[in-house]
């Protein structure tokens, strides 16, 4: 509605696009959106293509790649697959970062990756990565509670004593901090770790901070809010910490990620 009425765009949505989010085609049409069936028309007429996932080959459209179906000088906005700065893929394949970039160059497509936006105040309203991170952290707790299969808070009932579940959260960015907060609300005793000195943030949402070298961490130089890359010695100490604590836990949620690298 904002795109159509305030910015003057004609908005077209592929049929069935919102089904998994419980948004029907009729609901889109009610706010003036045009619905098109799956096919090349949507791509061939679009000036801007908005998509959550990376562009891929569409098996339901004769195996054509989404970027190849767009017209020249069109713009693709969405999340692109991450690729470490030092990586050099030898082969390009569907979904590969290098393949996507080369296809875009060949077709003169403008690529805008939401995952590469800087996390600064000026870009905060466009920080979709944090929004999805918060949702992922929340959903992980729901999945964990279901998999755990027991009551998480410690309780004494007529059927006996139920011990309080112990939960571990590894990596406390947006997703991790959300997981700590929700697990605490679910009644867990929550322990959390991060490679950054963010003990105050973890405590503020109800967790207990754990680190293999808390004093050394406080002296370490901050990495601008992002996780740094570790050497083998520090990685070994971290692995030892995880091995020790994982044996004590009922639930573990791991969200750690380094920018430009797979989580």
Written description of the protein model:
35% of the residues lie in helices and 16% in strands. It is an alpha/beta fold. Helix 6 packs parallel to helix 7. It has ten helices and 13 strands.
State mean pLDDT (0 to 100 scale). Answer: 87
Shape: globular
The profile of the biggest β sheet is: 4 strands, parallel
The percentage helix is 25-40%
Q: Can you count the beta strands?
A: 13
Distance between the termini: 34 Å
Question: What is the C-alpha radius of gyration, as a whole number of Å?
Answer: 23 Å
In terms of DSSP E residues, the strand content is: 15-25%
Give the count of helical stretches.
Answer: 10
Strand order across the largest sheet: 12-11-10-13
The helix/strand series, from N terminus to C terminus, equals HEHEHEEEHEHEHEEEHEHEHHE
Class of secondary structure makeup? alpha/beta
| Unreliable runs | 89-93
Ordered list of secondary-structure elements with their pairings:
Layout lengths: L1 H5 L5 E3 L10 H6 L3 E3 L3 H6 L2 E3 L6 E2 L5 E2 H4 L5 E4 L18 H11 L2 E4 L14 H21 L6 E3 L2 E3 L3 E5 L3 H12 L3 E5 L5 H6 L3 E2 L4 H6 L12 H15 L4 E4 L9
Parallel strand pairs: 1-2, 3-6, 6-7, 10-11, 10-13, 11-12
Antiparallel strand pairs: 4-5, 8-9
Q: Quick gist of this model?
A:
The chain has helices at 2-6, 25-30, 40-45, 66-69, 97-107, 128-148, 174-185, 199-204, 214-219, 232-246, and strands spanning 12-14, 34-36, 48-50, 57-58, 64-65, 75-78, 110-113, 155-157, 160-162, 166-170, 189-193, 208-209, 251-254. It has 263 residues and is of the alpha/beta class. Helix 6 runs parallel beside helix 7 (174-185).
């Amino acid at each position: 509605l904002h795109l159509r009425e305030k910015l003057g765009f004609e908005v077209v949505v592929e049929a069935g696009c919102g089904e998994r989010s419980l948004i029907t085609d009729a609901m889109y049409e009610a706010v003036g959106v045009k619905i098109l069936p799956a096919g090349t028309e949507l791509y061939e007429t679009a000036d801007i293509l908005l998509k959550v996932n990376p562009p891929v080959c569409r098996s339901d459209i004769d195996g054509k790649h989404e970027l190849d179906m767009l017209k020249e000088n069109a713009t693709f906005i969405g999340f692109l697959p991450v690729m470490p700065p030092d990586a050099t893929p030898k082969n390009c394949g569907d979904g590969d970062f290098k393949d996507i970039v080369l296809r875009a160059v060949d077709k003169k497509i403008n690529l805008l990756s939401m995952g590469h936006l800087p996390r600064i105040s000026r870009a905060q309203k466009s920080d979709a990565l944090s929004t999805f991170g918060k949702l992922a952290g929340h959903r992980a707790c729901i999945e964990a509670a279901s998999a755990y299969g027991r009551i998480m808070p410690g309780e004494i009932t007529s059927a006996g004593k139920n011990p309080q579940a112990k939960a571990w959260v590894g990596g406390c960015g947006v997703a991790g901090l959300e997981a700590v907060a929700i697990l605490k609300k679910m009644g867990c005793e929550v322990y959390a770790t991060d490679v950054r000195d963010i003990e105050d943030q973890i405590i503020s949402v109800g967790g207990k901070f754990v680190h293999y070298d808390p004093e050394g961490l406080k002296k370490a130089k901050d990495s601008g809010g992002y996780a740094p890359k570790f050497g083998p010695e520090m990685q070994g100490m971290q692995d030892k910490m995880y091995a020790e604590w994982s044996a004590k836990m009922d639930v573990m949620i791991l969200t750690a990620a380094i920018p430009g690298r797979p989580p």
